[in-house]
Amino acid sequence: MAYDAKAREFAFGFYAQGLSKEKALREIRKVYPGFSGATWDDWERRFDWKQRRAKSDAKLADFNDQCRDTARALMLELNEIRQQLYNQIQGGKFDNQTVYAFTSVTKQISDLARQHLAGQDPARVAMETLRAAFEKFLAGLREIDGLAKPLESRAGDVGQLVEKIGVEFGAEALR
Predict the structure, then answer these.
(1) Per-residue pLDDT reduced to its tens digit, 82-103
(2) Distance separating the N- and C-terminal Cα atoms of the chain
(3) What whole-number distance in Å separates Cα of residue 42 and Cα of residue 44?
(4) Alpha-carbon torsion 80, 86, 92, 98, what sign?
(5) Nearest to 72, CA basis, from 24, 112, 34
(6) What one-character DSSP code corresponds to residue 130?
(7) Comparing C-alpha atoms, which of 64, 55, 63 is closest to residue 15?
(8) How is the chain split into domains, by residue range?
(9) CB 11 within 8 A of CB 28
(10) pTM
């Protein structure tokens, strides 16, 4: 079956998210019922999805680094302002606006800290690491002579096993 660029980009979206081939195929087939694993493999090679994803991941990492750097700089500036306001209040040289400004800056610092810590959720990091390890392991298995076809024919079982292990170890990460 012939697919257009829209279908290819749709499929690449799942690849870019790091979904396993098996899981991605289940989702893609909801929109493109006849979509095959062979088409996935062909597009992955022909359109160099690995390289494209690496570039996309690098850009995302750069963006995240810039966001962290900006948040850090903003936090330092806000903390300096907070300290100046606190010193005014402690020194007895303040009015309602000073107290309001101090409260507002303190809340902004708290919100920034909460957002930064949410991005470092250990369970999320553990699950991302586990997902990447499974993806690498399955890709390695597919490269072993004679294993690609059996894995493809049992993709559903493999996907369920991976999902089960992910849930189990994800629960472990929360403890």
Answers:
(1) 999 999 988 888 888 988 898 8
(2) 47
(3) 5
(4) positive
(5) 112
(6) H
(7) 55
(8) 5-47, 65-120, 123-174
(9) yes
(10) 0.51
